[in-house]
Structures are given as C-alpha cells and as structure tokens.
Design brief:
Elements lengths: L9 E4 L2 E7 L1 H18 L6 E6 L3 H10 L6 E11 L2 E10 L9 E9 L3 H12 L4 E9 L13 E5 L5 E2 L15 E4 L2
Helix pairs in contact: 1-2
C-alpha cells in the first residue's frame, strides 16, 4: 500500500524544481515548540509582536494563535532586502513601524534569518525607539550564513543550510506564499 505521506511532493516554479522539505505536520510541531518557549518567557508581560511582512505573516498567525496565557499586541512592518533568490544587501523600509515601542517588550517575527541584515537593522531601530527588550522569533534560521552576531534569533522553528526555500509564507518573486509546506530547490 502506498502512503501519500511518504511521497515527496514536488513543484516547478520559474524554471526551478522544488521538493517538499518540511511537511505541514512538521511545521505545526515547530510552531508549537516556539510558541511554548515564547509563552513561558512572556506569561506575565504584554509583548508587542512586530511581524515582518510579507514573508512572516503565515508563521506569525500560527505562532500567535498557539501562544498560551500571553496577552499581546500585534503590528506589522514591511521591509525588503531581496530580489529573486538573492539579497541586495540593502534594507528598504516599505511600511515603517507605526506602534510606539518605548518601554515595550518587542518580539520581531520573521520568516527566515540568514545573513541577519534585516534583524540587525530592525533591532537597532527598536532600541533607538526605546524598546525595553527586543527578541526575535523565526520559522527558519541559516546559522552558517549569519553575519551579524546580534541577529541570532531567540526562538527558532527550524535550522536550515544555505538553500533557497519557498512556501508557508516564503515567496519566489511574490508567488507561492500559499503553499502549506516548505519546499527547497531539488538537487
């Protein structure tokens, strides 16, 4: 008997072949583990979750719903440092932070942290605005790509090597964010 859960799902996007890397079930487990850690750290606080659009919106929605006993506020910021499959090295603020972060515990929610440029600059921005603390929750972390020590995430769903991934909010030039799994380039 063939089990559908053992069959690797593949997709083609913009001339690249991708294979399923993290299933929806694996993602749910990772999100639950991150939510448990965040819940423990912020049980008696009222953190402000700053969700980095567009990539982190799916992870953020699942993470925030999975929190236990945390009264929180959520806001969004939109920045860009990618074009296609590569970083530009420059952070562009498209939708700036609208909330006051002074004396607030801030949790930046990101889809993937690789070089750390975005997080490095966002943390500096939050600190300059007077945040009491700034932590980072990310679905994916590429530790071998990290260039900024202060950008290492506090809460990590899954570590990954230097692979381009799509799905679960992660895009390829704006598309495929709606995939329920995370896919990597097929070798």
């Amino acid at each position: 008997m063939i089990s559908y859960f053992n069959i690797m799902r593949t997709i083609d996007e913009q001339g690249y072949h991708f294979e399923e890397w993290l299933t929806p079930q694996q993602i749910a487990q990772d999100v639950a583990q991150v939510a448990d850690r965040v819940s423990a750290d912020y049980a008696d606080k009222e953190p402000l979750f700053v969700v980095v659009l567009n990539g982190a919106f799916v992870f953020a929605a699942d993470l925030i719903r999975a929190l236990k006993g945390v009264r929180c506020e959520v806001t969004f910021i939109r920045v860009s440092s990618y074009f296609g499959m590569a970083t530009t090295g420059q952070l562009e603020f498209i939708v700036p932070l609208q909330q006051v972060v002074e004396n607030r515990d801030v949790v930046i929610v990101e889809d993937v942290v690789d070089s750390g440029l975005t997080i490095h600059q966002l943390k500096a921005h939050m600190r300059a605005q007077g945040a009491a603390s700034v932590k980072v929750a990310t679905m994916l972390f590429k530790p071998n790509k990290l260039e900024y020590d202060d950008a290492k995430p506090d809460y990590i769903g899954h570590e990954i090597t230097d692979e381009f991934v799509i799905g679960y909010g992660l895009d390829f030039d704006g598309f495929v964010r709606n995939l329920d799994a995370i896919y990597k380039v097929k070798e």
